[in-house]
Each structure stands twice: as C-alpha cells, then as structure tokens.
Amino acid sequence: MLSDQTPVRRVQRVRHEIQRRELIVTDVQRRDGRFVVVTLRGESLRSFVSSSFDDHVKLMLPDPDAGEGALLMRDYTPRAFDTARGELVLEFAVHGSGPFSGWAEQAAPGQTLTVAGPRGSMVIPVDYDWHWLVGDDTAWPAIARRLEELPADARVSLWLLMDDLPTLPARRPAALDLHLAATPEALLQGLRGAALPAGEGFVWCAGEAHTMAQARELLLRDKGHPKEALKVAAYWKAGAVAYHARLDEEAAA
C-alpha cells in the first residue's frame, strides 16, 4: 500500500576516517554449521566507529599468488564491536571456497588479521512503521545486527534465501514475520506475491547480484516502493571474484 505523501529520504550518510588495524584473534565459534564467528582485539579498536548495521570493513590477507606485499581484500560486515574492550566481532558465511572463507574455517586464537575501515555509514532510522530485510547467508550478519538494534515492538519481515533459519539473536523484535526460500526463484515469487504493509517502511536487500537486481526491479517497478526507502546491495556475484556493489538507484547520488 502506497502512502499519499511524497516520500522523504530520511537516511543519513556519514563518512569516517579510514584506519588500518592489525588485530589478534581471541575467540572462534562455529554456528549453525555454516557460520564462523571470529572475535578480534586490539588497542586501536578503541577508536573504531560503525554507525550502521550494514557497514563493511575491508579484510586483508597476503596473496600467495602475487608478489611480496600483495594483498587479497574483501568486504565484511562488523557484526558487533565494543570500543571499551577494544573488540570487534566478524561473522563469516563459510561456503567451502575462497581465501577468506578458508581463513575463517581455520582461524584460531593468536592469529592476526588486518582490518581497515569502515569508510562510511548509511544510517537507516529504526522508527519506520515496518521493515523488510531480504538476503542470503552472506547478508545474515548485517540482518542479525539490525534485528538487535531495532525496537522490541518493530514490525519486521525477514525474507531469507536459506534452507533453514539461522540462530536468531537473543535481542530482537518480539514479533517477526519469517519467510524462507530455498531458491532465488522462490524468494522472488514470495516478494512478488506479498503486499507491502500500510505506513512508511524501509526495505533492505543484500545477496547475489542477479537475484538482488531482480528484487530491486520488482520492489520499485511492480510494487511502487519509493527508492528513498530502499537499499539493495550485491555482496557477491556468481562467477565473479571480490564483487560488492550498490544496486539501488540512490547509489549514484
């Protein structure tokens, strides 16, 4: 249902000073058979800033196939952080391939990891009338963080491209509308068949590039959801390496 009022862009963009940090792994936890939660510590984290649930930091590992000093780099969501403790938590969706998935699977206390950023945040208010969160395993760390920061009475629908539901955060809105889809086609069919709730809402989507592009199209064109209240990101792309892009129309703003 569309509002008669002209949509207003309420999202705020914040820039941060980029800092590169050398951190030490202090804890590693396996979760749900497909996620690895890594806790990092370092005095430099006392100045760490992450203002939005879908911020990303750049992780760096030595590139064994390139020259000395060459680095592999990937973007990951800060799952949680505590500046007083100098602590940062990252959650990896492990999938059996790729250098960073492999690193997470073998991670152990005492190892080191280089982390830079975030360079900025897109701060989405929590007081919308309703929230839709759409994504696959790679989007789960951001979705879980968002669930923790939303008010207990927030109206939230989760649209997850997953075979089964991951462990939900203990702190989350009391009532969640859950939708699981085993295939991209099923996810898109579910979104297409669902009615947008009444009131002002925000839709956040992240996952594979082709699937997210289709989700963006149906939300904007088929359902008429305002672009001012939409963020769509491609966290990965089938057949591509180190792919991360904004897909919504505000990306060029």
Automatic annotation (TrEMBL):
Residues 18-125 form the FAD-binding FR-type domain. InterPro entries: FAD-bd_FR_type (IPR017927), FNR_nucleotide-bd (IPR039261), Riboflavin_synthase-like_b-brl (IPR017938), SIP_FAD-bd (IPR013113), SIP_fam (IPR039374), SIP_rossman_dom (IPR007037). Belongs to the SIP oxidoreductase family. This is NADPH-dependent ferric siderophore reductase. It comes from Roseateles asaccharophilus.
